[in-house]
Amino acid sequence: MKAAHYDVLVIGAGPSGSMVARNLSRAGYQVLLCEKRPVVGIPVRCGEATGPRKRLSDFMTVNEDFIESAFTGVIMHGAGGTTIRYDADKEIGVMLDRALFDQDLARQAVAEGAELQVNARVTSLSPAENGVRTVHIEQDGEAFEISAKMVVGCDGAESLSGRWAGLKTRQLPPLTCSAIELRVRAQDPNPNHLTFWQGHDTINKGYIWVFPKLKSGVVNLGSGELVPKMGAQNMYQLSMEYCHKLYPGAVIEEVHGGCVPVSGHMAEYTAERFALCGDAAHHTNPLTGGGIMAAILCGETARRRASATGCWGWARATRNGSTASSREWSTACRAAGCRCPRRSPASRSSA
Ligand SMILES: Cc1cc2nc3c(=O)[nH]c(=O)nc-3n(C[C@H](O)[C@H](O)[C@H](O)COP(=O)(O)OP(=O)(O)OC[C@H]3O[C@@H](n4cnc5c(N)ncnc54)[C@H](O)[C@@H]3O)c2cc1C
User: Fold this and answer.
1) Which is the CATH superfamily of the domain at 52-96+173-262?
2) Which of 146, 292, 293, 301, when mutated, tests ligand 1's pocket best, judged by the most ligand atoms within 8 Å of its CB?
3) Mean pLDDT, residues 47-54
4) Nearest C-alpha neighbor of 133 from the set 266, 5, 37, 301
5) Whole-number pLDDT of residue 210
6) pLDDT given for residue 350 in this prediction
7) How confident is the model over 159-183, as pLDDT tens digits?
């Protein structure tokens, strides 16, 4: 680490972490972005489908290198042989190369001045004291202590940071999807469509998906369900069965698993000098489990909250993503010792 103290320490360089780091660095804060993996974005545990270029470009620079293909329609196979096909006359979303996408976003954060450290696993957080939190980090067998005025937990679906900060982040099994995905070297007959199977013939509380990636010439095929009942086929068997049925003899290049928080709202996303973003805050679309766009939006919201006012009270003053009242905010700012204009000049001088 280049310093012992930062304005903001971001845990995890997935889309939410890199967006927070990029946006707050751009706003002038000194940001440390810690990623436990040796290489950002790898392994990819994602179907890699997200919204259209136009929507992505509202928040970030879209680089064609990480766009695999566009999709213009959806095919839904339901129960009893029912099929619904939707064709749009425009791009309704894109398939990403998630490894390149995550790496590009991390590079955008670094280009704005964030310091990225890989192999850097955050292991615990202290309570806020004297206006900072102390963060414990392990990197290449060494232990570090870094202090930061604000810590943002972007550590994904298996996040521990919220719990360290005293938030109730537990994901109950019936509210969490478990998913297995195969990367299959195959061509799908509907290369510009996302295809889903859902219903009692296949899978009830989840779906099976086929998402073609044209540049790479592969198909992401997977299945995810709210914790399957005892005796039900597990997600690996189901994904394999569909793979053999749809693409007999095709080579399966990778198999990944993960969980998707589809539990809806947590009571609190923030604590003193701490906020959660992305999957760590359970911010996925509960219908689809898609979380890339939500992660990016979270990164943008964090920037707006923190940088519009230069305010460290925002994390205390906002609840469930709602905007705090002016009074609530200024009380929180006083308590958080921030420098924003909501505080009186006298109290500001001591921040
Ligand atoms: C099988 C599967 C398929 C999916 N398909 C789609 C899809 O098609 N479309 C879609 O929109 N969403 C999909 N999702 C969900 C999507 O992947 C997530 O919503 C998205 O990655 C959330 O981004 P994030 O930045 O919040 O978390 P992540 O992308 O999970 O990033 C968290 C980062 O934090 C790091 N980290 C964790 N703990 C620590 C620590 N202690 N210290 C330092 N670093 C740490 C991790 O290594 C990781 O890099 C899928 C998920 C799964 C499991």
Assistant:
1) D-Amino Acid Oxidase, subunit A, domain 2 (3.30.9.10)
2) 292
3) 96
4) 5
5) 98
6) 37
7) 999 999 999 998 887 788 889 999 9
How would residue 340 be classed by pLDDT, with cut points 50, 70 and 90?
Answer: low
Task: Say if CB 17 and CB 291 are below 8 A apart.
Answer: no
CB 153 near ligand 1, within 6 Å: no
The span from the CA of 119 to the CA of 152, in Å, is: 18
Query: Which residue lies with its CA nearest to atom 41 of ligand 1?
Result: 122
Binding site membership of 239 for ligand 1 (Cβ less than 6 Å): no
User: What's the Cα-to-Cα distance from 240 to each of 78, 86, 227, 310, rounded to whole Å?
Assistant: 19, 26, 18, 51
Mutation to probe ligand 1, out of 22, 36, 171, 194 (largest number of atoms < 8 A from CB): 36
Q: Does domain 5-48+97-171+265-308 have CATH number 3.30.830.10?
A: no
Residue 211 has a pLDDT of 98
74 pLDDT more than 80 = yes
pLDDT given at position 327: 63
* Paired tokens of 202: 């296949």
Give the DSSP H/E element, type plus range, for residue 317: helix 314-317
Q: Is the peptide bond before 228 cis (omega within 30 degrees of 0)?
A: no
* pLDDT value of position 346: 41
Provide the residue ranges of all domains of the chain, joining segments of one domain with +: 5-48+97-171+265-308, 52-96+173-262
Query: What percent of the chain stands above pLDDT 70?
Result: 85
- Looking at residue 138, its pLDDT comes to 97
Ligand 1 pocket, mutate which of 97, 140, 152, 155 (most atoms under 8 A from CB): 155
Q: Give burial (CB, 10 Å; 0-12/13-18/19+) of 109.
A: buried
CA 349 to chain centre: 37
The reply to whether 52-96+173-262 shares the fold of 5-48+97-171+265-308 is no
pTM: 0.88
Burial class (CB in 10 A: 0-12, 13-18, 19+), 27: middle
